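Support case: user asked for a sample of complex input and structure output to validate their parser. Sending the pair below.
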Amino acid sequence: MRKKNNTHSWLNIWRQLTNGDKILVFLLVISSVATLALLQSSEGSGSAVEIKIMNRHFATFPLKADTTFTVIGAIGETQISIAKGKVRVLQSDCRQKICVKTGWISRGGQLIVCVPNQVVIAVIGKKEEDFLNVITQ
Amino acid sequence: MSSLNKTVSVRRNSRFTQIALLIGVGLILFVFESFIPRPLPWVKLGFAHIATLLALYLLDSSAALIVVVSRIFLGSILLGSFFNPTFLLSLSGGLCATLIMVFAKEKLNKVFSIFGVSILGAVTHNLTQLIVANWLIINKNEIFYLIPLMTLTAIITGTIIAFISQLLFSRFSNFSLQNSSPLPK
């Protein structure tokens, strides 16, 4: 521990940061913001919904389809709804309901993932290939 | 001679007890945090890493690793996710984050304060979990779309966790008995 007897307040954090800390935070913020900007410009609104269950491709739906259906995953059922060009999980048998709380997704590259039930719902964008190129480069 | 041996064994026991205490602290925070609803699915404060930071700074690197691994094993048994994908995610994330934090604290001591170490740990935790999640379950590279957002949140959560840990250091100032004087030989 470097300093022991300082008064603890949020303002003091800045004084305790070493130059290394500041450079680290600066680099992380710059690279994240730059990547975000790059991704925003390359992605469009989605055109289709791809559903994977337990690592296998299950089905692909067009985003225009208005439908609600139930799939069986690793631990139970997941109810998925597609409406007005958006998709969400209505109900799931998992404990934390993270997939339900994710809410509606509609843009290319967005994902809903249910880890316990091993269900992955991905919106495929119109510019999917451009998007993937950005990622892999 | 016998009193010397006694001192050694008291010190050894005290280290044992301290590690056990920190595992307990981490475990409680880990289970407690699982009950807090998350604002976004991929945002988590990582309270359990307060115990890791305490072990790393009050004791040593091996204590930090023991605390993390035991906490994740016991925590997953308590939450009923033992050897689930969730368990593998926490184990890989926790282990890699701790290894990076140990490295940053031991080798880059002059470069990073506890804040830098904690932020590095948080970022590593996120990256490892994304890679393992993609490999185990998701298999769609679009998940890496989350990296910049997760990195930005990791900077904030890492700072909060470092701040809380530092508040605790002053309360724990006589905790690390074993480092106050060298062991008698």
